[in-house]
């Protein structure tokens, strides 16, 4: 099914990334940049964009060459310890005081901190490009707004559907007609590589919790699980603009046991 085919593709992509001599198609270059397919379409309060990029470039550790994003990122690193495990431990201790050391909330933090679920790494090219586009509307240092993106792969090419809200609102925006869009990609031979969204920093928070953690919430876990079961999604992906966590089906299966 989706899983077996996609696993083979992912292994192939990893091999390709390691081949420095790989020759890119004339339609792409090795710079961390998108080919824009759909500039802007409004979907019930959501701005929808579609982008394309060579998979090897998308999965590389390059950053988007976007001056505003790079400036905001640099500014954040100067005022906050952005080490992902520092942030997880910081928020874990806040949750432990609120809910208790034996609570399911704290147990979820422990799963990540002890590296029993998820893979935490630096943000990659694809994720930084999507974040940079969101950052143009909702700057990293001044906003705690979320975006979401659906990422597909076929023939060494990745396509991303990026959704950004027109106005600030709570939570990651889901495209209203996402079922039809995802099904259309799958019917056309694309594999559902990743469902991505961001977890913002709350730098102006009145509490001590500045967030910025790449730990999934209950709704995150349930949404990713549904995409995996119904559409063969390979990874749930959460980024804060600096670091990223990816969750595969085994991770989500374990996390589902922690969901209320």
General description of the model:
With 260 residues, the protein is of the alpha+beta class. The chain has nine helices and eight strands. Strands 1-2-5-4-6-7-8-3 form an eight-stranded mixed sheet. A hairpin with a 2-residue loop joins strand 4 and strand 5. It is globular. The two termini are 30 Å apart.
Structural features:
9 helices; alpha+beta; globular; 8 strands
Offer a concise description of the structure.
The chain contains 9 helices and 8 strands. The protein is α+β, with helices and mostly antiparallel strands.
Major β-sheet, in short?
Answer: 8 strands, mixed
**Low-pLDDT segments, ≥5 res:** 14-29
Distance between the termini: 30 Å
Mean pLDDT value: 87
Biggest sheet, spatial arrangement of strands: 1-2-5-4-6-7-8-3
Q: Helix amount, in percent?
A: 40-55%
Percentage of β-strand residues: 15-25%
Number of helices: 9
Rg estimate, integer Å? 18 Å
Q: Please trace the helix and strand order, writing H or E for each element.
A: HEEHHHHEHEEHEHEEH
The chain-level structural class is: alpha+beta
- Principal-axis shape equals globular
Number of strands: 8
Task: Describe the protein's topology.
Elements: H1 2-17, E1 35-43, E2 46-54, H2 55-58, H3 67-79, H4 84-99, H5 104-113, E3 119-122, H6 125-137, E4 147-154, E5 157-165, H7 178-187, E6 191-198, H8 218-231, E7 235-239, E8 243-247, H9 249-256
Parallel strand pairs: 6-7
Antiparallel strand pairs: 1-2, 2-5, 3-8, 4-5, 4-6, 7-8
Helix pairs in contact: 4-5, 8-9
